[in-house]
Amino acid sequence: MEDLLLPPKRVQVGHHALDGDLVVPPQARGLVVFAPDIGRTRRNPHHLHVAHALHECDLGTLLFDLGPSQETPDGSEDTMMPSERLLEAIDWLDRRPALAALPLGLLGIGIGAAVALIAAAKRPQRVGAVVSCGGWLTPALETLSKVSAPTLLIAGGADTEVLAMNRKAQARLPGSSDLVVLPRIRHLFEQASARDRACELACRWFTQRLPPRARGARHG
Predict the structure, then answer these.
(1) Is residue 44 classed exposed, middle or buried when 0-12, 13-18 and 19+ CB atoms within 10 A define those classes?
(2) 183 and which of 62, 157, 171, 179 could share a cystine (Cβ 3.0–4.6 Å)?
(3) Which residues contact 142 (CB under 8 A, 6 or more apart)?
(4) For 24-120, where are the E strands, in sequence order?
(5) Cβ atoms of 152 and 180 closer than 8 Å
(6) Exposure string (b/e) for 49-85, b if CB count within 10 Å is 16 or more?
(7) Are 118 and 142 in contact (CB under 8 A)?
(8) Residue 54 and residue 217: Cα distance in Å, rounded?
(9) CA geometry: angle at 9 spanning 126 and 106, to 5°?
(10) Residue 39 pLDDT
């Protein structure tokens, strides 16, 4: 999918002026900010496919480039910088009254799911729901006890390492959570059926778990 369902508004997010694509349907019931997998851009076809599905559920989306990550001394990805930039995006939205009025969800893919959960832990009053798709969640384990937002974890049944990580993460989440395992799937976006199922689950979670939109709120 080369284009979003609705024409995106090109934006520059926060003081780092990160390039982003903002779509807000006319009757948006909420806004979902994407935390992509490390090394993936906002124009990745998988991200655009999920964004299409959310738009069809009357959910707005903000896709932006988190920028490069750095490796820690043990060779793992350092999520500090991407998490700070995601927080910067949330604060950028909140400085715009029309967007600040919309309930906010976070959707993370791969290690971006850890980034999303770290941000949810730091903005508990703002983030209303989180969806993790194939999340590599080890970097977020120490902060999960501070995540109050309802959280959906989606993992492939054939990806045993990620599945074990997601089970460990769910045990640490203090609030409402669910883990959905897609049997015989390793990568969620590798097969169309798994991709579509993940989109369906994400749409349902956000529409059911995000708080209601403020009465009379307009996105402009």
Answers:
(1) middle
(2) 157
(3) none
(4) 30-35, 59-64, 70-71, 77-78, 104-109
(5) yes
(6) bbbbbbbebbbbbbbbbbeebeeeeeeebebeebbbb
(7) no
(8) 20
(9) 25
(10) 73
d(CA 64, CA 18): 7
Helix axis angle for 45-56 and 192-209, nearest 10°, is 40
pLDDT in tens, 11-21: 888 777 788 89
**Model pLDDT for residues 94-120, shown as the tens digit of each residue:** 999 999 999 999 999 999 999 999 999
CB distance 164 to 171 below 8 Å: no
Copy the structure tokens of residue 195. Answer: 């991709």
Structure tokens at 145: 């006890």
Measured at the alpha carbon of residue 91, what is the angle toward residues 87 and 138, in degrees to the nearest 5? 15
Tell me, what amino acid is at 21?
D
Count CB-CB contacts under 10 A for residue 159.
18
Structure token digits, residue 160: 């045993």
Residues 6+ apart with CB under 8 A from 126: 90, 94, 104
Inform me whether the pLDDT recorded for 2 exceeds 70.
no
Enter the tokens of residue 186: 């390793």
